[in-house]
Amino acid sequence: MEPAKRKVVQRSPAHTVRLLHLPQLQEEPVEADSALERDFVLIASLFPHIRRIQHQPFRLTWSDRSYTPDFLLTFADGTRVVIEVKPQSKTERYDDLFKLAQQKLAEHGLTFLVATDQVIHAERAANAKLIRRYSKLGPQTSALERVLHLVGNGGVIADICGPDDLPLLRHLICQHRMATDPSLDTAPTGRVFPVQHIEGEDHALQFSSWLDS
Hints:
- By secondary structure, the protein is α+β, with helices and mostly antiparallel strands.
- The protein has 7 helices and 11 strands.
- It has helices at 35-44, 95-106, 122-132, 141-151, 157-160, 166-174, 203-212, and strands at residues 18-20, 30-32, 50-55, 60-61, 66-67, 71-75, 80-85, 111-115, 155-156, 179-180, 191-193.
- The strands form 4 sheets. Strands 3-6-7-8 form a 4-stranded mixed β-sheet, with helices on both faces. The chain has a 3-stranded antiparallel β-sheet with strand order 9-11-10.
- A hairpin with a 4-residue loop joins strand 6 and strand 7.
- Helix 1 crosses helix 3 (122-132).
- Mean pLDDT is 89; it is low at 8-12.
């Protein structure tokens, strides 16, 4: 693996680059080269055990080609996942390259995943955007602790707390102090539960399952 040489940020009228600021996760912004990449980052940032998202982290080289993946995700237990974000309609043409990348990354103990628009679908992305809207909410610690107490072992949101508590629930999810199911649905019919309820296998494997839901 080599340092990536290509920069995401390219100024041109036809090319829009998003800088995503995720202060609850990390200091440096994450660059996204497309709307699909943006939506992936917003979704991934809400996985409870995520600790860092790096864009174009390195370059893989072979004798006849090279490849720069879109993202490297690091989790609380130190495991990592390399992500390629690609529309499902375009994945087949890259199948050979992705197999080579998967093999080479496995030699370094890294999992490789291709995240398509089938898992980064519009409803899931909209739910992530709604939750992140409350990331900068500044409630008192006592109010957050009250909601954490109400959640207890988890369950359907409407059975746990009232509509006025939804902003606090979403803020706690942004802080990785509470989790939802993979749909990220925080409507009254959605479900929430403590983060420790999804402990178990290593976080990279958990994320793989969570992303594909």
